[in-house]
Design a protein that fits this description.
287 residues, alpha/beta, Rossmann fold, eight-stranded mixed beta sheet, 10 strands, elongated, Formyl_transf_N_sf, EC 2.1.2.2, phosphoribosylglycinamide formyltransferase activity
């Protein structure tokens, strides 16, 4: 099969290993490209081409890939994604924040574009939103892995294969392992449904209502090893109204999230803000 089917490979570039990642990123701004192997010395009795794990890859059930080629172009200028930061969005459900990010990054003024959506669950609404937008999707079933670390390694491999430069957590219901967070430090954003550092954790709206505060909101922050503790990039306040339930408050906060998350991503992707020493924000004075 490998002799007769080219697996979609139209051309091959052989580059110095030191520059491989940067070349891949540059090519992917205009074309679909992958790292498919490496050139090594050939011993006398070995095959000149060695394809590893071909049948295993076809038989894997934990990873599902759907790829759609975006139709958006701007004529002689090339794809609208040229020069933009490649972002992956991690989801576990309906993907309402994903939809807001997709909409915002379609703007010519956006410094980012969504190059990949990963879900740990198949068949969720967020995958359908991504597919309709022409964004590649990958399902990595966390139940197929023995630990968080192993799952994160599989996810990291996919992110590398797509040359992802930044990651957004949009309703991703998995706690990331320490090594993964450390590797991607300063390159992961999460949105939390309260004004951090108040009301951390999974039951933010319940805690807000129990505390009787009159103001809550959402926070977009860099991801740190401690949950909901990373440097704050953007916040939007939301009033708590009389008679609010967890459901009504959640709906109002979600609308704020749909504005705050794209705004935070633009700040980071444009270089206006980055994570500096000791986990503190560094703001650029450039206009």
């Amino acid at each position: 099969m490998a002799r007769t089917y080219n697996c979609g490979v139209g051309a091959v570039l052989v580059v110095d290993k030191e520059f491989a990642r940067q070349v891949l990123i540059d090519v992917q701004r205009e074309e679909e490209a992958w790292v498919i192997g490496e050139v090594v010395p050939c011993s006398k009795d070995s095959c000149r081409v060695d394809i590893k794990n071909l049948m295993e890859a076809f038989q894997r059930k934990d990873l599902q890939l759907k790829h759609y080629v975006p139709e958006q172009t701007n004529g002689l200028q090339g794809p609208l994604t040229k020069g933009k930061v490649r972002v992956a969005v991690l989801i576990s459900g309906t993907g309402t924040n994903l939809e807001a990010l997709i909409t915002s990054t379609k703007s010519p003024d956006s410094a980012a574009y969504i190059a990949l959506v990963i879900s740990n669950k198949s068949g969720v609404g967020g995958l359908q939103k991504a597919e309709r937008a022409g964004i590649p999707t990958v399902v990595i079933d966390h139940k197929q892995y023995s630990s968080r670390g192993e799952f994160d390694k599989a996810m990291d491999k996919v992110l590398e294969e797509f040359s992802i430069e930044f990651v957004c957590l949009a309703g991703f219901m998995r706690i990331l392992s320490g090594p993964f967070v450390k590797k991607w430090e300063g390159k992961i954003l999460n949105v939390h449904p309260s004004l951090l550092p108040s009301f951390k954790g999974a039951n933010a709206h319940k805690l807000v209502l129990e505390a009787g505060v009159r103001l809550t909101g959402c926070t977009v922050h860099f991801v740190a090893e401690e949950v909901d503790a990373g440097a704050i990039v953007f916040q939007e306040a939301v009033p708590v109204e009389l008679g609010d339930t967890e459901e009504t408050l959640s709906e109002r906060v979600k609308k704020a999230e749909h504005r705050a998350f794209p705004a935070a991503l633009q700040l980071v992707a444009s270089g206006a803000v980055k994570l500096g020493p000791e986990g503190k924000l560094c703001w650029s004075m450039k206009k």
